[in-house]
Amino acid sequence: MSGKNIAIIGGTGFESVPPEIFTEAVEVQTRTGTVSLLSLSHNYVEPYKLYFLTRHGANHSIPPHKIDYAANILALQALEVGTIFATNAVGSLRQDTPPSSLVLFDDFIDFTSQRDKTLFSPNSDWRHTDFSVPYSPRLRNAILQASNEMQVEVRPNGTYLCVEGPRFESPAEIKMFAQWGADVIGMTGLPEAVFAREAGIEYAGLGIVTNYAAGIAPAPISHEENQHIAIEVSSVVRELLLLATSYLV
Questions:
Q1: Are 35 and 19 in contact (CB under 8 A)?
Q2: Cβ–Cβ under 8 Å, residues 229 and 100
Q3: Alpha-carbon distance 27 to 222, whole Å?
Q4: Fewer CB within 10 Å of terminal CB in the chain, N or C?
Q5: What sign for the dihedral angle of Cα 28, 36, 233, 246?
Q6: d(CA 119, CA 11)
Q7: What is the chain's pLDDT, residue by residue, as a tens digit (249 residues)?
Q8: CA end-to-end span of the chain, whole Å?
Q9: Torsion angle defined by CA atoms of residues 175, 181, 186 and 191, in that order, rounded to the nearest 10 degrees
Q10: DSSP letters of the chain?
């Protein structure tokens, strides 16, 4: 691991923390850009510091294909973060995984095409990185322990497929992805998970199901409706991940 500190990366619907949680603004300059995030460390005690980064920006102003994934991970690495809990709003490819479900990823398929594929800079010493176990078992177990304590249902396994966005998928694409073995689909989980691994940071991804995907959904897919569902679930997810951090110390 690159450090002992912990970060939570919030996706759609999880873009802020309640006012009763004291936060301090932090800004980190990286080789690809400047990253703004929040420190929640005053609410917690050693041996770690806790940071919160909203992937889309505070006002959901950054679309998935414009997020500087490298800068985000490099900033967390500079802050000596060793573990990341991330959330992603996702569409479901399975009838048995309805909206408002929580899915803990254990594998992924990267279907993006325009994003950088590695965190290593052109002039750095690169290496091949193993992804036999794509997400951290230790962090996944911490989330499951927290879900048991809170009596919150979390699907313990799921394959996440990432597309470029910002458009939603066609029914034919969804049918193909389901045949490939994908369970949920989103636009932001990769290359984030890959960059974290290359930076030596443990990473776990938790999907918030906001809708059935195209061809499965009974109506056209609406970002506004997806965002509404993600916000409804976000308070439970926030409590779940904060509790999960306690299983790491």
A1: no
A2: yes
A3: 33
A4: C
A5: positive
A6: 20
A7: 457 999 999 999 999 898 888 999 999 999 999 999 999 987 665 678 999 999 998 788 899 999 999 999 999 999 999 999 999 999 999 999 999 999 999 999 999 999 999 988 777 777 889 999 999 999 999 999 999 999 999 999 999 999 999 999 999 999 999 999 999 999 999 999 999 999 999 999 999 999 999 999 888 899 888 899 999 999 999 999 999 998 987
A8: 15
A9: -130
A10: ---SEEEEEE-TT-----TTS--EEEEEE-SS-EEEEEE-GGGS-TT--EEEEETTTTTT-S-GGG--HHHHHHHHHHTTEEEEEEEEEEEESSTTS-TT-EEE--EEEE---SS-S-SS-TTS-------SS-S-HHHHHHHHHHHHHHT---BS--EEEE---SSPPPHHHHHHHHHHT--EEESSSTTHHHHHHHTT-EEEEEEEEEEEPTTTSSS---HHHHHHHHHHHHHHHHHHHHHHHGGG-
Q: Which two tokens stand for residue 225?
A: 């409706």
Amino acid, single-letter form, for residue 3: G
Joined tokens for residue 199 = 């930076």
